[in-house]
Write a structure and sequence with these properties.
single chain, 329 residues, alpha/beta, Metallo-beta-lactamase, Chain A, 2 domains, seven-stranded mixed β-sheet, 19% strand, binds zinc ion
Length: 329
């Protein structure tokens, strides 16, 4: 059973986030085209974005376990950056240009080394729209080979949705990867190799994970959700298969796409794996019993209710996705 009540520290964190969000909302209401205003706002945001050093030179900001709102600037997924001897890599630049600008300011406050790589773990807007804040660094934008068609298909839709919430300037542009990963790729930030792996369809069809070899840390993107309701947008069977493969590997820690900044491995995958297993078993049973898709939404995996933040917002859609995948097997 997940603990869903908040501690004093978490309430303090929420209050800090709301302060950050208010600045973002203000930024969304004014024109940020003029560079001095953008820089001023980004500088102000630096202290609003708390970076936790989960391993030497590997820093993570925790996304809020909320939906995107004007208050949180779509800062709802974790962001990370890794500092090598020559350069910095960003892993998920954030959910909006405003969120990305806050991360960029936090990086600049910590190191002068150039941001050479911006790695986007998948197509979902809370992970990729921060990329616009890093255009001036001229980094290599990296993604899964299928990220480009996914962004071409959905990017404009996601962008319109964010603009309705945040305004155009705070939302930012759609940034396509300038290099893609078909299978594996190794980068070096200067005595700091990063190993990138393009996964088979799982959370989405374009999941990319990163291993910081020196600290033996996996940055899993949304292949791992902790506490927040997982969302299925790729393949249920594929996600379970990718999790099983990752569980064979020993990591010192894992940075999830949503949840605490770093979690133990493989223990932290247990809740996600249980949910996906139940979703698979009960959806498959519903299909075989000729229970219609609408009825299945109301009956499948209801034992998970109360164990996840935002269960009601996403579970029904997950059942629908699972049903479509399992209907013809
Ligand atoms: Zn996602």
């Amino acid at each position: 059973m997940q603990r869903l009540t908040s501690t004093r520290a978490e309430r303090k964190e929420t209050s800090r986030r709301q302060a950050f969000g208010r600045r973002a909302a203000i930024a969304g209401g004014f024109c940020l085209c003029c560079t001095p205003a953008a820089r001023l706002w980004a500088a102000e945001s630096a202290d609003g974005l708390r970076c936790t050093e989960v391993a030497p030179g590997l820093l993570v900001t925790r996304g809020a376990d909320e939906e995107a709102t004007a208050n949180n600037a779509d800062a709802i997924a974790n962001q990370a950056f890794i500092i090598g001897e020559n350069a910095v890599a960003v892993i998920d630049p954030g959910g909006s240009r405003a969120h990305g600008a806050a991360l960029r300011a936090a990086i600049r406050a910590r190191t002068e080394r150039p941001v050479r790589y911006v790695i986007i773990t998948h197509v979902h807007p809370d992970h990729c729209f921060g990329a616009g804040a890093f255009l001036e660094d001229k980094p290599v934008f990296l993604g899964h080979a299928r990220l480009i068609p996914a962004l071409q298909a959905r990017g404009a839709f996601y962008q319109r949705g964010l603009i309705r919430i945040l305004g155009k300037d705070a939302t930012g542009p759609i940034v396509l990867p300038t290099e893609t990963v078909d299978k594996n790729l190794t980068l070096d930030l200067g005595n700091r190799p990063l190993s990138l792996h393009a996964h088979d369809p799982a959370h989405t069809d374009n999941d990319l994970s990163v291993i910081d070899t020196r600290t033996n840390t996996l940055l899993a993107g949304d292949l791992l959700f902790v506490r927040r309701m997982p969302t299925l947008d790729g393949s249920l069977k594929g996600w379970l298969a990718e999790l099983a493969k990752l569980k064979q590997i020993s990591f010192a820690r894992v940075v999830p796409g949503h949840g605490p900044q770093a979690v133990p491995w493989p223990e932290a995958a247990a809740d996600l794996e249980r949910y996906l297993d139940i979703l698979l078993t009960e959806t498959r049973a519903a299909v075989r019993q000729n229970i219609g898709i609408d009825a299945a939404v109301d009956t499948v995996a209801q034992s998970e209710h109360g164990k996840w933040i935002l269960f009601d917002a996403y579970h029904g859609r997950n059942v629908t996705e699972a049903y479509k995948e399992l209907e013809w097997e």
